[in-house]
Amino acid sequence: MLIHSALLALGATIAAAVQPLEAKDNYFINPKTGNRFQIVGVAYQPGGSAGYNPALGKDPLSNKDICLRDAALMQILGVNAIRVYNLDPNLNHDECASIFNAAGMYMLVDVNSPLVGESLTSDKPWESYYASYLNRTFAVVEAFKNYPNTLAFFSGNEVIFNEENGATVPPYVRAVTRDLKNYVKNHVSRPIPVGYSAADVRDVLFDSWNYFQCAIDGEANDMSRADLFALNSYSWCGNSSFKTSGYDTLVEGFTGSSVPIFYSEYGCNDPSPRIFTEVQAIYGSEMTGVFSGGVVYEYVQEVNNYGLVNLSSDGSADLLSDFYSLRDQYAKLDFTQIQGAKPPSTAAPKPPTCSSKLITHKEFTTNFTLPAVPPGAQDIIDKGVSPAPSGKIVTIDSWTVTHEIRNRDGSILTGLAVKPLADDATNQPGTNAANGTATGTGTGTGASPSATSKNAAGRTAAVALPVTLVALVIAAIAL
Q1: Distance (Å, rounded) from C-alpha 433 to C-alpha 455?
Q2: 73 inside domain
Q3: Domain assignment of residue 462, yes or no
């Protein structure tokens, strides 16, 4: 009995929690330390669009073994966040959310999906903005609100992509943002940020940012203001530079933002394989004053050839060249400096008052009168979704990866496992490290995974446990 109780305590402690973050002014802040937080993320949608199938009870965060496999590999990669696009609020995500939480990774959650009735349409948004659509977005909030590693919700993704729909769509995206923020205010115990993920189309990019960050009433607490603004940008290709890629104009354009700015997707794949030299710029001194990191597109290889890992139908995985290149770029960063920075002592930028003067392109809307809440939706905002999905952090009985993982040289990793982190810790390169990952060509550097190759002279690696917990188990056995 004592042994069993000690092991239960061990498991409960292993499933520690990351510190919930806040979007404060133009930065993400760890409220416990007061430090800024830089997103070092990867887009996560195993199975692509087919990975989301409500009829089959399937989405990216509903399979424990798959999440264990990918969280362990992401620990090796060095990321501290995932972006997940298509989620079914009616499925149970407790195990996967708990795994990524223990692995030190936050979740950026899109509330929409590609299915009819589950997103705003770009051509006629007024036809898709109704109560049942909002009910589903609120259900996603309910499903993820209790996980401490839920970092933010995206109210839309690339809904505005040219001047034509820039004339009609923005008020509806802002209305959805308003409705989501009011729902969070009424039904969530902490202020989880809500924002927009934009296409990097320069004709509408900065107008979109100004439209969503401004305050209609001139006050920062305007509930229709976005809490963050992100962009999907692929302008840095190959061995580019800060200026050649146009990153300099992005920094210049977003300087003075009143909300956090980050890349919700990046990683041009022409030429291929990718070398990810933009990582050093994104987390370097020229950008971190304005940007809060970014999310590499994407974890899983699909036909578009952006993947870091190739998955097989049996659940096994092959690490691709891009995986090693990105890992090595992350390993060059000084994470102590990056995640230990304090926000400037100077006054934070205030949101501009919404005005036609903020909009530069004549086709982009200057209408800041938002659509009314659709019939029936206000009742849901006030009373909540019913029945409401509910998530919680749970104890994971094993952290061991059961799927076969192959290096790019064909060698097989063994002993791969998620390394649970202590409370308030986030993942970074070297967290899950052992002499186990072959580089394939022998040119890779940086952290290696907590695993061994079958051709690595029998070396093994174990998950490192806190000394006090080991002592607890030993004491229980002795009794």
Answers
A1: 18
A2: yes
A3: no
CATH of the domain at 59: 3.20.20.80
* Residue 261 scores a pLDDT above 60: yes
Q: Binning pLDDT at 50, 70 and 90, where does residue 48 land? A: confident
Q: In 3D, which of 79, 135, 111 has the Cα closest to residue 196? A: 111
Per-residue model confidence (pLDDT) at position 175:
99
27-41 confidence digits (pLDDT tens)? 999 999 999 999 999
Closest CA to 333 of 296, 291, 278: 278
pLDDT at position 437 is 54
CA distance 465 to 409: 31
Place of tokens 């997940």: 84
Phi-psi region of 158 (alpha: psi -120 to 50; beta: other; left: phi over 0): left
CA of residue 460 relative to chain centroid, distance: 31
| Catalytic choice (158, 163, 286, 404) | 158
Residue 156 placed within a domain: yes
Please report whether residue 394 resides in a domain.
no
Report the 10 Å Cβ neighbour count for 208.
Answer: 25
DSSP per-residue codes, 199-263: E--HHHHHHHHHHHHSBTTS-TT-TTS-SEEEEEE----SS--TTTTTHHHHHHHHTT-SS-EEE
Is 298 labeled as catalytic in the residue annotation? no
Confidence grade of residue 15 (pLDDT, cut at 50, 70, 90) = low
Domain that holds residue 150: 2-383
Q: Which of 135-149, 180-194, 287-301, 336-350 has the lowest mean pLDDT?
A: 336-350
Region 227-237: what's the mean pLDDT? 99
158 catalytic residue (yes or no): yes
- Give me the catalytic one of 95, 118, 142, 265: 265
Residue 374: exposure state from Cβ atoms within 10 A (0-12, 13-18, ≥19): middle
